[in-house]
Amino acid sequence: MPETELREGPGPDAAPAAKIAGPSAPGRQRGTSRRRFGPDGTKGTLAKIVLLGLVDAVAVYVLMMLFFSHSWTVLAVSAVVVLVINWIYLRKGGLPAKYLAPGVLFLLVFQVFVVLFSGYIAFTNYGDGHNSTKDDAIAAIQLTAQKRVPDSPAYKAAVLAKDNSFYLLFTAPDGKVSLGSTDTPLKSVDAAGKDSTGKANALDGYRTLNFQEIVANQQQILGITVPVSSDPADGTLRTADGSNAYQFKPALKYDAAADTFTNTDTGAVYRDNGKGAFAADSGETLSTGWKIDVGMENFARAFTDPSLRGPLLGVILWTFTFALASVALTFALGLFLAITFNREDLKGKKVYRILMILPYAFPAFLTGLVWSGILNPEFGWLNQTLLGGASIGWLTHPVLAKISVLVVNLWLGYPYMFLVCTGALQSVPSELDEAARMDGAGPWRVFRSIKLPLLLVSIAPLLISSFAFNFNNFNVIFMLTGGGPRFADTNRDIGATDILITLVYKVAFGQGTGRDYGLASALAIIIFIIVATVSAISFKQTKALEDVNS
Amino acid sequence: MNGSAPRTAPAAPTTDHPTAARGTTDVDYLKSLHRRRTFGAWFKDKGWRHVVGIVVTIFAVFPLLYVLSAALNSTGTLVGSNALFSKIDFGNFAALFNIPSRPFARWFLNTLVVGGVTSAATVFLGAMAAYAFSRMRFTGRRVGLLSLLLLQMFPQLLAVVAIFLLLSGISEVIPALGLGSQLGLIMVYLGGALGVNTYLMYGFFNTVPQSLDEAAKIDGASHTQIFFGIIMRLVTPILAVVGLLTYIAISGEFVIASVVLTDPDSQTLAVGLYSFVAQQRSENWGVFAAGAVISALPVMALFLFLQRYIVSGLTAGSVKG
Q1: Per the CB 3.0–4.6 Å rule, which of A186, A484, B155, B264 could disulfide with A180?
Q2: Does residue B140 register a pLDDT over 70?
Q3: Does residue A245 contact residue A237 with C-beta atoms inside 8 Å?
Q4: Terminal-to-terminal C-alpha distance of chain A
């Protein structure tokens, strides 16, 4: 076996190959027809070395960054992963792993891990006001909970800019001028230019902002808190309008021994309430808290909180209705069209076909936006042009909005069903059709008893995956109605056309209400469970498992 | 009207007593009868199909014409766009490329880059996995295929919160891969590279005869030579289908992209165009429509051009609408 000897060389799978290659080799258990691969060429080996070298270079950089950021657990896991990758590609044999490793790595991190991570987040109170450790929260409370010192003098302020950052120039009532910013504590300056009222408004090396610029950068300027000294207890200077400034001092004093905050004015004491926040005896909590595990509370809240329970049940019901109705409508229209145009001798068939599948080629996220223009109750084409200035709330009336969403999804989805039904219909043998007609069956009978059952065999798995897809059909809902019109019986941003996935998105990243990652993940887990149930049933129903066994 | 002979027409009335005068009327009568029958039969047989076709075509095409008309009408507002094709100019297109706060050209480029890189990498990773599953027998092969089938049931967007927090954790260590980075977004998308794609390719790889590999092996080809030199060339159609479907899916992906890409300069078309109309839908309508037309044209052209291949891929299990 000269080839076997050749393979002792650089080939990654050479060692096991030598053992089991020849027909006479002992201990062979796998198929007799299987031969081993030839050795890697010089080019292949070179490419392997270069690629692995690049991967390792990046990996070393990542590991170093992890080391410097003291993330020890992640560092350990990453180091193991890098070692495993090198082992897979440097050892001899184990060929399947070499082909599977890159895809599986991404799959594990960005599909499997994130799902497990969602599961973890669902059991925490992670979200706005609860996104860090308790120590961070204590520091943040001291910094943010500041109030104006009563009867403190008003400073005149001017906004200066240097190197793209803003500074405040203060003129004290006694005429002393000082400069500072959030990062640079207050310090006196002498050579400031003053206007007629004695207010300092210019300084060498800095540019003074005019009124328009102050308005344009309002958020940043209001956010400037200038520490009076390096001791936080001395408080800060802030401006509310860019021309006057006042002194602020911490309103809450932290007592490390007792782990409490005390309000310096009212004397109220805030204690760790065990729910990731400091709370007073009156029940009032400080807005900055920290992340803790809350067990099943997010799930309990979803189904007991009065502002959430009713709307959530409505959303779940509508999610099922939407997914089922979408599949039913698109399939019905698609099948009807497939039957209608399943005639070889129909003139213009090709033109119809191209024009009718155009919606399918149109990007889905644009569909919702375009239709939202057509259906706009005030200015839309449907009300203004077709209905001559009517004001029907196509997107603002709860029931009409639901119908609109279904119609738009029908527009988007029927071409797919049309295409797959046409394919399936053409694979039904025409002999069956003829035989049934010979036996005296009418067209309807032929369709119902012969074509439809045959069709469903091949279409059913597609209907199930279409259901799963529409269950999470975010784009149509979000782009068309944004989930609206909002329910009247809740102060949350939940509306009549919201489905579960849009609700998850709004709870986690919505505007206005605070971000609540814990609750959003809990809702995502509920979707997981529903989808898993549906797919488990569909697995039993279809023959998908048998294909795998081949 | 068409010329197909109506077999269902009844036998002509008896003309046992023909007279010269009556003959002509009979013929006329017959002709008119013939014509009416033919139309009725034709309608019953085919005409209604044309009616259905025309109605559905109007339903299908109208929104596309509407957005095209709005794009070509520089009045620009939602109300002004209602009179279809009342005014045709390219003012909206000029305006589209001249808004510094909403860099449409960048969005377009970003979409091409993110979609292109993701679909190329997806095709490559999927093909490697499909090759392993199709041509090699190893422990865990069946479990692996089953897991892929199961995992594809759970779309990535369900874990969007965890993806956001994971990337915000990554940005603290390596900003280039974290929030706001297109590379980070591409990595997230590659998490879905296996799954349905691998399954689609696995089926196609199985149709390539094993004897080709065997012959190459006998000639001493290495596994990489067989993979790149033989298999990849024979499965080009499925590679094109998977690549195109991935590109279409990624270029329209909104949820994850909107969470990851926060800076307008790095956003994709889906995120950018949404932000364009999210606040002031009716004022920006014309410019948005122009953007929509430009965004949709390449995808639609590709789709119609490769329609035949895509349809074959669709029936194998991937779903869009």
Answers
A1: A186
A2: yes
A3: yes
A4: 33
**Pick from B29, B71, B49, B52: nearest CA to B295:** B71
Strands A244-250, A207-208: pairing is: unpaired
Q: Is the pLDDT of residue B315 over 60?
A: no
Question: What is the value of pTM for the model shown?
Answer: 0.78
Identify the weakest region by mean pLDDT among A52-56, B214-218, B297-301, B307-311.
Answer: B307-311
Rounded to an integer, the average pLDDT of B108-123 is 94
- Which one of A111, A126, A355 has the shortest CB-CB distance to B57? A355
Find the range with the poorest average confidence among A435-449, B33-47, B95-109, B237-251: B33-47
Q: Please state, rounded to an integer, the average pLDDT across all residues of chain B.
A: 82
How would DSSP label each residue in B125-182?
A: HHHHHHHHHHH---TTHHHHHHHHHHHTTS-GGGGHHHHHHHHHHHHHH-GGGSTT-H
**Residues sharing a CB contact under 8 Å with residue B282, sequence separation 6 or more, in sequence order:** A376, A378, A379, B77, B78, B79
Note the pLDDT of residue A270: 79
The answer to whether residues B221 and A39 touch, using CB atoms and an 8 Å cutoff, is no
Closest Cβ opposite residue B292 in set A118, A366, A379: A366
CB < 8 Å from A in window 251-280 of B: 251-252, 254-255, 258-259, 270, 273-274, 277
Q: B66 and A370: CB-CB below 8 Å? A: yes
Restricting to B residues 139-178, those with a Cβ less than 8 Å away from any Cβ of A are 141-142, 144-146, 149-151, 153-166, 172-174
Rg (CA), chain B: 29
Instruction: Write out chain A residues lying below 8 Å of B165, CB-based.
Output: 117, 121, 126, 517
Rounded distance between C-alpha atoms, residue A445 and residue A436, angstroms: 9
Tell me which amino acid residue B239 is.
L
Q: Which ranges of chain A have pLDDT less than 50?
A: 1-33, 545, 549-550
- Cβ distance A291 to A132 under 8 Å? yes
Residue spans of the domains in chain A: they are 2-19+39-121, 147-250, 304-549
Rg (CA), chain A: 34
Q: What is the pLDDT of residue A70?
A: 84
Q: What is the CATH number of domain A147-250?
A: 2.40.430.10
The span from the first CA to the last CA of chain B, in angstroms, equals 37
CATH architecture of the domain formed by A304-549: Orthogonal Bundle (1.10)
Residue identified by tokens 């505007």 is: A511
Sequence-separated (6 or more) residues with CB below 8 Å from residue A60: none
Task: Return the number of CB contacts < 8 Å for A and B.
Answer: 320
Residue A259 φ/ψ region, left for φ over 0, alpha for ψ in the -120 to 50 degree band, beta for the rest: left
Q: Widest CA span of chain B, in angstroms? A: 105
Pairing of strands A155-162, A244-250: antiparallel
∠ at Cα A241 (A237, A245), nearest 5°? Answer: 25
- The helix-helix angle for B236-251 and B285-305 (nearest 10°) equals 170
Q: A484 or B257, which is more confident?
A: B257
State phi, psi for B91 to the nearest 5 degrees.
Answer: -60, -40
B101-314: in CATH 3.40.50.150: no
Rounded-to-integer distance, Cα A310 and Cα B65, Å:
41
Which pLDDT value is given to residue B318? 39
pLDDT (0 to 100) of residue A413? 92
User: Residue A118 corresponds to which amino acid?
Assistant: S
A82: left (phi over 0), alpha (psi -120 to 50) or beta: alpha
Residue B311 has a pLDDT of 67
Within 8 A by CB and 6+ apart from A360, the residues are: A412, A415, A416, A419, B303, B320, B321
Q: How far lies B282's CA from each of A400, B74, B98, B269, B287, in Å? A: 21, 13, 19, 19, 10
